Fold Natural resistance-associated macrophage protein 1.
Amino acid sequence: MLSPVDASDTPTAPQKSPPSSLPLRLMQPATTASDEDQSEEHLSLLPLPVSKGSLFLESDEEVEHAYEPEEKVVIDLAGDEEEEEEEEGDEEDSGETPGSDPPFSWKKLWLFMGPGFLMSIAFLDPGNLEGDLQAGAIAGYSLLWLLMWATAMGLLIQLLSARLGVATGRHLAELCREEYPNWARMVLWSMAEIAMIGADIQEVIGSAIAIKILSRGFLPLWAGVVITAIDCFIFLFLENYGVRKLEAVFAFLIATMAISFAWMFGETQPSQKELVIGLLVPKLSSKTIRQAVGVVGCVIMPHNVFLHSALVQSRKINPKKQRRVREALKYYSIESTLALVVSFMINLYVTTVFAKGFFGTEEAKNIGLENAGQYLNNKFGGGALPILYIWGIGLLAAGQSSTITGTYAGQFIMGGFWDFKLKKWIRALITRSSAIIPTMIVAIFFDASDTALDVLNEWLNVLQSVQIPFALVPLLTLVSKEEIMGVFRIGPRMKVVTWTVAALLIIINAYLLLDFCSKEINGLLFGSLVSVVILLYVTFIVYLIVRDTSIPNWFISIFRKRFL
């Protein structure tokens, strides 16, 4: 687990308190541009004046925030304010936090519970479930170890995202708006939107498939899409009654998934011995490499990296107080770990159920999200509650919850990159429409063909995989900067770990892209066009890495120390 503050990772140079001028930095030029360019960029980012009664929020503040002050959950308990008043003078004088951190409190942990579980839903969306069932059907129990370590890598990335949001008081999209020039910001925003739309199509289609199953085929896919779009707004309306109410809805949906898939696990009784061996003994063959890549690729969702850095701001934490930031990071680390343990168990249930039923059979290569329930029913029969409907209930909970978080992420991405002070229902309508319209087209044209839906799902997986660097590289760049993170920036050892994980994820997804292109891309003209796009793609990733000169210089210094 990523410790909130690791003494070995804390820089030994004179420490500064988390920049108290962070909100003011929004009005300052970026540190890498010329003064003239900075002024132009600043002016271009100012919101246009709007008249009263418009769709924009009327506020004296010039920037969009993930949560308004009155929406945030208050964490301070009785006695906290007195302790802060006693320490406030010392902190301001020395820039350091005297004394030890507050003792662990179960009540505080309960108050911090929520953002991590919302984040964990991206590990349980219908796209992940399809990856799980295909991994189990084709590779059996042999990739369980990879699922476990991929979840651990996902936890590391999400903890960095939470660290960024808590230490700065702003989320990743907002910081990208300030950090990068306009053209790069436009590209990053476009890639985030494309990734989100791709994920949303899978999520909505998954929910529509579940509705079709539970209605016994009476409702076609397009009807399920419409229902999902409508009830998504109903759930988001609950946010008007407080963040905790919405988090309770997500907790109910996660519990529904856990009970449904645990029930399936109990009904099918996968081999406990094979399960333990699969977790502890790494195995990988040429026949299962594609499923292995899919398992890892499904774990890191680009929009989820943006989402978590915003969700942690739903708690009222003063980023100027180091003691409170450390405390928040400690509780968020515990909460996020618990959430991903739950998500790992759910993914484990799905993988082992399909490993038990279909590994080594002829049906294994034909199983997809839409026909999985029927295959399960044919294999394991009915009973008091047929396994087909248990699968449908779990899939519906996964689709509904991930669709809502996708809408949530879309609001933060749009608001952060563009600083739009739009009313929430307008932002929700825009982000929902951007996904529902293409999803409706997909539902109408692909409703009659399971094979076509599987091919589309492969395209969408590739689409999301190629977007991963555009969330990971900015995140790792920003959490490494002292002027942004203050004393909470990651240290040298954590840099090595995180950049190694990022490189591994990028390489794995590059393999998926090349493997897919080698099978799907035909013709000289089309191939040349794809080659040009790939060249531009790689060039932009290199730009994101080398733009912060400290990163390549740091790699060079490590290389010289070790090998020269």
The two ends are 33 Å apart (CA to CA). Residues 322-358 form the longest helix (37 residues).
